[in-house]
Amino acid sequence: MSLFWIPLLPALGVLAPLFSAKFGRTNCAFATAFAPALALLLMLFKAPAVFRGETLIATVEWVPALGMQLSFRLDGLAFLFALLILGIGLLIILYARYYLSSKDSMGKFYAYLMLFMTAMLGIVLSNNLIQLWMFWEMTSISSFLLISFWHNNTDGRKGARMALAVTGAGGLALLAGLILIGKIVGSYDLSIVLQSGDLIRGHSLYPVALVLVLLGAFTKSAQFPFHFWLPHAMAAPTPVSAYLHSATMVKAGIFLMARFYPALAGTELWVIIVTLTGLATLLLGAYTALFKHDLKGLLAYSTISHLGLITLLLGMGTELAAIAAIFHIINHATFKASLFMAAGIIDHETGTRDMRRLNGLWKFMPHTATLAMVAAASMAGVPLLNGFLSKEMFFAETLLQHTLGSLSWMIPVLATLAAVFSVAYSLRFIHDVFFNGEPVDLPKTPHEPPRYMKVPIEILVGLCLLVGLFPAFIVGGLLHSASLAVLGGEVPYYSLSIWHGFNLALVMSIVAMFLGVVIYHNRRKLFKFQSQFPETDAKLVFESVIQCIVRGSVRIQQFFENGSLQRYLFLLFVMVALFAAKPLLQLVTTTGDREQLPLNGVALVLAVILMFAAIATVIWHRQRYISLLTLSVVGLVVSVAFAYFSAPDLALTQLSVEVVTVILLMLALFFLPQQTPKESSPARVARDLGIAALIGGIFATLNYAIMTRSGVSISDFFIANSKPGGGGTNAVNVILVDFRGFDTFGEILVLGIAALGIFKLINRMKVSMPSGDLKGRNWTKDSHPMILRTVSQSLLPLALLVSAYIFLRGHNMPGGGFIAGLITAVAIILQYIAHGVDWIKPRLRINYQWAIAIGVLISAITGVGSWMFDKPFLTSWFDYFHLPWIGEFELASAIAFDLGVYITVVAATLLILANLGKLTTTHRPTVEEKR
Amino acid sequence: MLAKPRFRWLPMPYHSMLLFVTWLLLNNTVAPGHLVLGAFLALGIPMLTSGLSQPQPALHKPIKTARYALMVLGDIVTANLEVARQVLGPLDQLHPALIAMPLDIEGDLPITLLASTVSLTPGTVSSEVSQCRKFLYIHALTMTDEAELIATIKERYEKPLMEIFSC
Amino acid sequence: MEMLFALCVGVLTTCGVFMILRSRTFPVVVGLTLLGYAVNLFLFSSGRLSINSAAIIGSTDAYGDPLPQALVLTAIVIGFAMTAFVVILAMRGRGDLGNDHVDGRIPDHSSLSDKERN
Amino acid sequence: MNFVLELIVSIFLLIGGGFILVGSIGLMRLPDFMMRLHAPTKATTLGMGGLLIASMILFTLREPGHISVHELLITIFLFITAPVSAHMMAKTALHQKLKMISRTRGQELLDPASQQLAPPQTTEKVESPKA
Amino acid sequence: MSHLVILPFLLPIFGGLLLLLPPIQNSLSRQRIFAIFTSLLLILVSITLLHTSYSQGTQLYMLGNWQPPFGIALVADPLAALLVLLTSILGFAAILFACSGDDETGMYYHTLILLLISGVNGAFLTGDLFNLFVCFEILLIASYALLVHGGGKHKTQASLHYVILNLVGSSIFLIALGILYGMLGTLNIADMANKLHLLSEDDQLLVKVAGLLLLVVFGLKSAMLPLHFWLPRTYASASAPIAAMFAIMTKVGIYSIFRVHTVIFGENAGELANIAQYWLWPIAILTLFAGAVGALASSNLRLLTANMILISVGTLLVGAAIATEQAAGAAFYYLLHTTFVSAAMFLIADLVSRQRGKAEDRFVQARQMKQRDLLAGLFFVAAVAMVGMPPLSGFIGKALLLQSADTGAAMGWSWSAILLAGLAAIIALSRAGTTLFWRVSSIHDEGETVPRAKLIAIILLLSCSPLMVIFAGPITAITTAAAAVLFDPALSVDALLPTLTHNPGGY
Amino acid sequence: MLSFTVILVSIMVVIALILNLWRLFAGPDLADRLLALDTMYINSIALIILLGIWLSSTLYFEAALLIAMLGFVSTAALCKYLLRGDIIE
Ligand code: NA
Ligand code: NA
Prior knowledge:
The structure holds six protein chains of six kinds. Chain D has five helices and no strands. By secondary structure, chain D is mainly alpha-helical. In chain E, helix 6 packs across helix 9 (230-237). By secondary structure, chain E is mainly alpha-helical. At the A-E interface, strand 1, helix 6, helix 7, helix 25 and helix 26 of A face helix 1, helix 4, helix 5, helix 6 and helix 8 of E.
């Protein structure tokens, strides 16, 4: 379990800088370094076991559904990488302590750094594919934060975004690849996956999985053609570049290839893809590096080139090449990190990174210069330094491979060519910066940096030397155990000595050295040649591609989502037609076997009236008042139809709702234009008519098909239980208040909410009112005709009586709380129409809002009442009582429920209509005034 | 003369009576239970709505009222037959007219009743009451003599109504 | 009879859908109401058509299906609440946006301004 | 049900139906709005009256001991409301100054009526109202 | 007998109604305290319900004591209970957030939110299709009223579209119900699944129409292509806490697709098995595409968040299209995650708007926010979760879903669509974040400091994301169980229908 | 005989309804159309009464009563609109 502490310590360490930042920079750095130092120590304790070739694994179950465990694995490869991450990480912490200025938020920086360190450790220690991916993506995120650390700087923001987009995309591909591997193997457990190499390689989806995983690796490791983000990530503070972009994060891709080497490598496909990608990257990076005037730009391309080199090695598929790759990982990390740190010092001390201005710094900072020169020499592959050793192994391997068949000879040649450029740009780094005349126009006078800022470089350069001189002693064990992990079984013999005799590889090195010097010497001609090509700034290209995508998206979106409701509705109807039409086309018979009702003349005429009225509504829809009248006719006929087809309750409801709706629409008519302009083109009308007729046809067909079919239904239950179970003879009403009282409860809730919502809408509503009618006549001055007033007033008690009648009989006969409520409401609305709001207001002091709440509460409490009898919500109760003289009568909880319905309906309707009325009690302009 | 509520619990006795009868009509019954319920509603509803009603002249002659109602019913039957003939017959024999009938009767309810009677009896529709409540504009489907029509209405309908409301 | 009923539903639907596809709020509301009628008739008829069979226990020998009736009742009430809301919203829209177009803006090809139409 | 009852009911029904039809024919035939306004009175008064009486008779006499008088209520309602509807519509027509056929007498009253003014005092036929 | 099942529906109703009455109605602070109290209570109830339904199996509540299919039954299976809990937490956050001012810009805020919650909870709990319609209407009408909360042109306009579209949707729902009742003679979902087999092949076609019409209806609610147009504008124009609350609304549609199209039209439906899936595949992919395009085209944070919701809808629809128990479980986990996170993002967008002056949350250079680091931190967490990057909950949901794709075609389509949409999201959100927080024109100290209530609300929602990762094991266990119930007829159908004592009649 | 009469009278009422509809369509003024609608309300009452007689059922009485009451309110409101524009003020 102690394995968990290795990533966990830095994870906890994220908090350390945040809390210690206020205690000064040095304390903050120490506090930050504590956790990784401890983790490093912990790991070193594990070293003997790892060097013995053991694989330490610690697992905790996490998400079984995802096959995801929290599982860590420490083998040679993980050990090597973890060592780099923690070791260089500690040096970076020290370095950053001096690098960051007092304006920078050190706490935040260290916190991001620790987050990154955790993620990196997570990747290399993961023993579960999904977990590995989790940490993989976390590096993308934390590196985004680190690159954009100076976020006021546009380059920083854009560079970070680009890095995130590219590595994020790769990460997504990787996820797909890993899940695919998991599906092939049946487990995400790395130990199992690594043992299932043959299964994976033999699977038909292997190419897909391989490509996906490699996409992840290549994007992360800045392989061609995904390399372009790395130079722009150099906008990051230099400690970040040194850490992420040389030593660790970009190596995550390499790590991935190494990690999956036993599972994925060894096929032709692997060799071709990885080798060619590596080769292209190697060449491109080496060549481009030479032309970069920016110090960090040069190092960035150099990094790309070296990453290509390692990739190439891993691609060759031979065991020795893999070992060479691992060795070069170590070497590159040491010399490149130190070079970056040196570049950071130069930048820090001079205020520029432009090599055209940086000249002759040797005089100002000899100590730094020396360190940089040793590291650069290692980068160039100068003997006695570590870079030389791995490069030599590389050359040797290029000579042994047969990747490209008869063209395989090209690989050593191209490798040498890359080495030539590598020597050239290393030389440029040394000569152009530290010698080559006097500095040009530097913002600051350079001098040596603080003492401890150089310590990390000294350590790394020392390592370069030590490894270069005593390779087997220093890294032998490390390399061996890592190779063991990568190769999965036996490690072949390899020699870590400085001298392998005078062989072809050495010749290649010597040629590279010589030609490199020649090229650097003639660099001006080469620069001139290169300057003929327009320099494409990847950032600009990337940004413009993104801009292009964004603009395209905007265009697509504006085209489809043009804000036109008519289009949206049209699509909705098309969808309905599409979905319904397909099954209907397969329907064999429309007419079912059920006996149909005979047609009669009266019904026919009524139907004709209904259809004519409906069509008239459409034809006259632009004269809104007329369409309202025809609409009323439709409503009337529908009510009569309900009555005709034995649904008296429905007829009553439809009638009362109809009136309220008409009143509402008339109110709307006053505040809306009274006519509709002719807007639709004939084509549009035809289109709309087409889809409307289609939908109409579909609904009619469905309706006919259903009505003519016989079927089963639960309805008999209601008929049978209405009286004995629900205590009422009106089955419809018993369903409403008892069997499905819950629906009714919901329904009054809807009505209540609608009223509240409408009241909310009316509140502070701006209205425009027509000053006269359609023909421009003034409205009459007689706002409340006397006769109407007088009669309405006497109708009110009568209407209330009818309400009471309808309400009380509802349970047994057509009627009920809802209809009664609407009758009451209509009667009161008639008072509003006849007398006006001003007259009613002081005479009818009802708080409709309260009434709605009380109405719904009465129904709810009636429902809850059954809890006392240990029955579910809305369980009804009824009984028959006998009183002398009066006779038998029934009491039922349904009546209380219905009372709630009644009150809600009255209150909601009035809240809506009465408040609408209030809108115009203020002055209304006449036609003349408006002119 | 305006009727003042005589009892607090019976603000509109005629209304209450009317409601009670209506309740029994609605239920087609004189069962005791409904008598109680009807009485309760007949008392309760006016109490609820009394706030919303303007005081009106009281009915003083219930018997005269009934007689008036029957007379109007009779007029409706005879006039309807006459008008039906006119409607179905040649239209060019119709001589419509808009007339203004001076009103002697006062008060909202009496005027309303008169206007309603005029409208209910076929052949005439009360179209407008002048703001001063002194004239009733009537449209007649066909009219031979204006004075005669006015006199008939005044004699047959306005006078009894004035008696009923004693104004 | 069933055919006639279905025909009515079809015509009401057609008219409703056509109106819903208009560009001004009022016709759309009218269309929604028409469609509402069609839908209620449709839902009602899912209990099949029958005459003289009201679901009042004791009033007849064969009862129609009371359940769709109850459903339609609920649907009518909910439809009313929704219509009311959309009507007021349309008014609010006219007040806030200055016109009664469903999109809140009158497309360029419309020749009439809102004021002229009043 | 005996023949006499059926006959009586049928007669009332026919009376009702007849007047309803006459009213609607009038609505269709009559030449101007104010004249057409007279038509529905037929439907509401004798038309509905006939039908409702028929219904009352039928349901009262159909089964012994059961009276059906609630139809009266509809009649009462119609008698209360129909004149008011007619009045309101007439008022509307006056206000909108709808055209009446040319032979209509008293057209000069249209103006004062639409503004609810007293008629102009020029006509001698009308006595001036008491103060 | 336990009434636990109905409490998530009733409690907010009682709370909401009491808010309308004195003495609570009289003062805003009383309203706030009461609303918070109610929603906290609701969370407790929901947790209890989830625990009960998970440990003791599906809870059936027969309303009115009528046995299904005759009466309406509430069905609290783990899925419903889980979503009820989600709604309750969201509701609490929306109420808490609004307590520092948003509830004053219009009337009835707390009442309407509570009633909305009850509608949503009702929709999750009901086992009756018509009652589902009623619950839909409750939540819709409450959402209409809430949408216009605060007033303004944009809200009016957006809600006009939203309301009209949904009214048409409701009509289609009723038509579908008419067909289903006409052919199957029942309204209970489980009973429908049973009765489907009794129909002739020809009659089944009619039921198929109904099933597909329901797909349109649920699709409209869940904003699937091409019925999604209402969503971005609607969500972007709503007040922040309401937009946050709305994050659950699309999920109701998704939930209904799962409930109806799995239980009624699932594997065991014979000829009608998986009728929705044929359409769901292209729709899901296109929805993801539309969401990605929309996200890239968004010009402000609210719009972007709305489009992210669209992406999440597409992702969930993929889960529905795969139509396996595993996919459903994955989808439910993802559903929880995306609801929390998008809700939080809406709230964050509001805070951002308030500190950026006239620029609001548009992606343009503007003055620096007063509490930039705080807001940037919140945004960062939300964004990481939203795009599905580790270590927050998005990645587990996404990985679960990708993993559940089984056939080659399913993998090809769903993976590429989901992953590419994820990439678009990364690009869009990184652009958004860098612009909003880092492209600063000037440094002012104006703007309101974030009130504590708002901060707590956001942190509450955001912290759900890491918690969902840490407790991913138990949570996926619940979502898996939730999915299992849906896919097992013994649990989703047979268990809900007591042996009938009544023989159904016929026409 | 009665059922024959009922059918005959129903046909008369239905013809009346058609005539009303014709007036509703023909106008010419809004008031004419309104009058036609008002007449249709009354004729519908007749139709429902006839339905009750035909089915010898009193279940439809309330529907007739309601049309009588609500039709009036509707007509009054529609008139008020033509007169004043705003029906509740
Ligand atoms: Na230089
Ligand atoms: Na008004």
